[in-house]
Amino acid sequence: MSDRYAEVRHDVWLHARQMWEQGLAVGSAGNVSRRADDHHIAITPTSIPYDRMRTEEIVIVDLASGEAVESVAPPSGELPMHRVVYQARPDIGALVHTHAPFITTLSVLRLPLPPIIDEMFLHLGGTIEVSDYAFTGTDAVGENALAALGQRAGVILANHGNLCVGRDLDRALHAAIVMESCARVYVQALQIAPPAPLPLSAEEAGLRMYDERRRR
Ligand SMILES: [Zn+2]
């Protein structure tokens, strides 16, 4: 039987695999999703390690009801967070949620990630804020994430990890990769001295480029 979602499932599978290969996820932690059409999203399944996950196990979920359709596996337990974000933000087409070690270090300290490298303005849109804490798997994780996200490319989830957003999966995954590498530099720098702040001119130039990229 032909699968009308085959291409979408493959896209999610591929980016989930890349997230794992980049060391942003261990075992089956973290999850990846994108819009499949106007009424559905495609999301990674629950509890299947990335090295064993198959394309056909990516789950199609009806956005309004939260029910899986035309799928063989149950969706990620963090589906409620994804649904809340897609329903509130039509501009967001894809989500990458990680428990990567350095960004999660900041998340347990509830420390925002300031733009310490000028590329952070360009790729992430400024300081990555920390959302209020909510228990994993609840709508409140998504609601709190939205409140702290703004127009930036991601948010730190208190005592949990991060959530990166984009118009498509390439952009959301890129934000997750950049964010983890900057978090690593920041955590390492803090062990020596407070990092030097960037000049206002760098912020202005970087944010202008961020806005241009988002509109492209
Ligand atoms: Zn999680």
How would you sum up this structure, described in words?
- The protein is of the alpha+beta class.
- The chain has a single domain, classed as Class II aldolase/adducin N-terminal domain (L-fuculose-1-phosphate Aldolase, 3-Layer(aba) Sandwich), CATH 3.40.225.
- 42% of the residues lie in helices and 14% in strands.
- The protein is built from seven helices and seven strands; from the N terminus they run αββββαβαααββαα.
- It has helices spanning 6-21, 79-88, 101-109, 119-124, 139-149, 169-190, 200-215; strands spanning 31-35, 40-43, 59-62, 68-69, 94-98, 154-157, 161-166.
- Strands 4-3-2-1-5-7-6 form a seven-stranded antiparallel β-sheet, sandwiched between helices.
- A hairpin with a 4-residue loop joins strand 1 (31-35) and strand 2 (40-43).
- Helix 1 runs parallel beside helix 6, helix 2 packs across helix 5 and helix 3 (101-109) crosses helix 6.
- The radius of gyration is 17 Å and the shape is globular.
- The N and C termini lie far apart (37 Å).
- Bound molecules: zinc ion.
- Zinc ion binds next to loops.
What's the structural blueprint in terms of helices and strands?
Elements: H1 6-21, E1 31-35, E2 40-43, E3 59-62, E4 68-69, H2 79-88, E5 94-98, H3 101-109, H4 119-124, H5 139-149, E6 154-157, E7 161-166, H6 169-190, H7 200-215
Helix pairs in contact: 1-6, 2-5, 3-6
The structure holds zinc ion.
Residues 78, 97, 99, 136, 160-161 line the site of zinc ion.
